[in-house]
Amino acid sequence: MHFEILVEDQSGKKALDILIPKLIGIENSFKVHPYKGIGRIPKNLCGKVDISKRILLMQLPKLLRGYGNTFANYPKDFPAVVILICDLDAKCLKVFREELFTILNACVQKPETRFCVAIEEGEAWFLGDIPALKKAYPKAKDAVLNAYVNDSICGTWEKLADAIYPGGSAALSNKGWQAIGSEKSEWAGKIAPHMDVNNNASPSFGYLRVKIMELTGSPPI
Prior knowledge:
- This protein has 10 helices and 4 strands, in the order βαβαβαβααααααα.
- By secondary structure, it is of the alpha/beta class.
- It has a 4-stranded parallel beta sheet with strand order 2-1-3-4, sandwiched between helices.
- Helix 1 links the parallel strand 1 and strand 2.
- The model has no long low-confidence stretch (mean pLDDT 94).
């Protein structure tokens, strides 16, 4: 099976380029496509979009229509699937998933698709594997890590920054969004290689793992 994976930023791509091979095994293929932010779902699902603006949800209706047409020509013995991976942020999960399925159901040719939402943010998956995090950042603050509730709506990247960044989230925030994005990408590159995909306390990561197991018919390696 081939996996087309859509993510909202470069830090997500960096983590998934490391994690996806652990989840799908060597007999399957994948490609991670990063976008420049999550954005909003357009009101007109069939309207024209500016393809130069690589905003994930803005492009999603067009992307799924395109994948539906492309996948229809794939050989039956090597099918393909789209996996959308994005942050929930402050959205309602139930409503957000309904909106995503509305886009999918509007496609004439529906691509095989799974929607996997990190709750609250992708950093929740790093915090779900404390041993991996501690290997990457041995001086991470245990008091912050022990107080974190998995997949809680609490300002997840800020919690991770408070645990591992000098001066915490306040110091990082003062440097602006570009610095935050750069630091998130560094976290992904350092933590993901140590992660055990079979043992992660984040329920939303567990959902991704189960969906991939269902598609491949085998457990992660």
